[in-house]
Specification:
264 residues, homotrimer, UDP-N-acetylmuramoyl-L-alanine:D-glutamate ligase, alpha/beta, 8-stranded mixed sheet
Chain lengths: 264, 264, 264
């Protein structure tokens, strides 16, 4: 198990599997609407993931429409994976609309490690204080200008005044005061394009009904990781893994979460 | 069963399962070409649905190319789900090219209930008199400025001089003079993104070989609904439903349609 | 079996199944990065195919970022299937960056037979001498201004000083000096959108580690064809074929290639 940063308490007070099951049940009741400004390769999987957990996705990237869609949604996802003209124009207005209407928004700074233009744009977005920043280790290193570790993730979360959810073989979540590590998931997740992007949409859905970003991110990652494990057992490879993952999310119950969640 | 509007005759003279099977067979022979100006989340499923029934899809949204592609196709689909710069510029020229070459076109006014800009654009498109308008109840209510019912659907179809195909748990189709209700389909259709958009492409394919929009829409919805029922029996959730739906469409035969069609 | 052009030697000196298995093994070790400027309908399948064989895809089409992404990749794919504003601006810079950094690039001139604008753009791209040109018979006929045959493919490859890989029920590969025909594959490949586009990305991945474009194209097409045959045996239709194809690619081993490859 990952050692938590020494200075940070574990969040022992939360029964994570119970909380994850409770929020998942809430999503299934509510047709929670998530508007996703996301990259071209992620749109279908993101929408299908949100539909599989009972949510209602919308995906427009048109600058003329983004404020209406963001205001109407319960949460906003901003993913930087495709930065075409329309998305560049829509992202700041989408964030502004979400904030003006008191809706949480979540940032996924895809490939900020690969392009200086994208890194700069991600930093501008972070000035709008997302509820959760979901990234991988390379993206974190580019953004935070330091290597990813439990301590550096907690430190940078405190600096940004947000929750950072760093996903990988083990997921780390911290808001600078609390820290948790999640040991669920399956290696085939890394062999399906946009899986991380779609999981960030799940974080946004959880954030729509749980305003504590730390709790929302940790429970969403538990749910995604448990569903991935179930899918991995049924799949013959990455092709069959993706539909099996959606099936598993759709059918996920509290007992499966309780039996499989590895979070501490 | 839905009551038809009192003033409108049922179309008892058509043997719907036979007609649906006949048109499906025609599509499989002919490599019918449908050009789809459709939203980013719908492009893959739309193309795969058209390929599954033996058609030939094209998807370009480039304003420089749209007239060549629309003129070359047997039918045009216009879906408003993504309204970026290129699609906005291409839609009116695509419609003009389809009309100039005597090809039917079908409108899918996605999310007109969510954005005033989109509602206005949909109304401008409707001035070009599509062969079929396919929408859901919310989109119909926004467009027609009245609640959806068999009577209001028939009434608005007469006003627009088109066929309206309103899909939902029960599908209603009317051209203002005739009315039919289709009780096929499966709840998982609503848990797969762009399923409605893809079904509108099927309507366009049927319209390419059956110029009576009312007959084309009703038979296409029967075919989609029966395939969805077959897929629903094989699927473990929304992830496996989507490929099973394409498999079912690809293999659909007259006996399956005859045994399952519930249209009156 | 296809007769090779009389004037061209078969490449009897290469043990094709062994070479294909060797290159596939190399790709699985190396996380070979392919940047794909590809059409909207192909992005997801292309990325998933590259991930399934152990590669690392990137997909940005932003003109601001294309040179950074192309320089960072091991090979570049240029697919003309969607020609929006961003892709038009990015394609020449992507090609220039690939060439400047000594990285191979591969061209897929989708639908050049359908649009004069696209044909002109494809010819401009060809002036940048791709490592491989992958096309179908209709696209070849438009580009080469002659019908496709083993002799005309070899002839035009010599004129272009590239390798042409013409795919169809039988695939032909020639660099103008050598010629090979591949009799693998499955009819369902033609019923899944963007399958040809995704296979071109596989050619690009092979070209990244095998600089002889003729060898790279021939082995990539053998691998794709064998995986398609395995998938076709497991699939119930085009919907289940696509994930089965990715599963088969992911699990493909030297024995399967050796037993099934039909190349001469």
């Amino acid at each position: 198990m990952t050692a938590a940063p020494a200075a940070l308490p574990r969040s022992a007070s939360i029964d994570w599997p119970d909380k994850a099951a409770e929020l998942l049940a809430g999503l299934r009741e509510g047709r929670t609407r998530v508007h996703a400004i996301t990259n071209a390769a992620a749109q279908v999987l993101t929408a299908n993931l949100l539909l599989a957990i009972g949510g209602a996705p919308s995906l427009t990237i048109s600058p003329d429409e983004i404020t209406a869609f963001a205001a109407r949604a319960d949460a906003l996802l901003v993913n930087l994976g495709t930065l075409d003209h329309d998305r560049r124009a829509s992202i700041p207005w989408g964030i502004a609309a979400a904030k003006a209407h008191g809706k949480p928004w979540v940032l996924d700074p895809v490939f900020v490690d690969a392009s200086p233009a994208r890194l700069e744009l991600a930093r501008l977005c972070l000035a709008g204080t997302p509820c959760v920043l979901r990234c991988n280790a390379s993206e974190f290193a580019a953004l935070a200008a330091r290597e990813a570790s439990p301590a550096s993730v907690a430190e940078h979360a405190a600096e940004l005044r947000t929750t950072i959810a760093l996903t990988g073989p083990v997921d780390w979540v911290s808001d600078g005061e609390r820290f948790v590590a999640i040991h669920n998931g399956h290696p085939l997740m890394a062999r399906v394009t946009a899986m991380g992007c779609a999981v960030t949409a799940l974080v946004a859905a959880f954030a729509a009904i749980e305003r504590d970003g730390f709790t929302a991110a940790a429970t969403a990652l538990v749910v995604a990781g448990v569903a991935a494990e179930i899918a991995g057992e049924a799949a013959a490879g990455p092709g069959s893994f993706a539909p099996a993952f959606l099936d598993a999310l759709h059918g996920l119950d509290a007992a499966q979460i309780g039996n499989r969640a590895r979070i501490a």
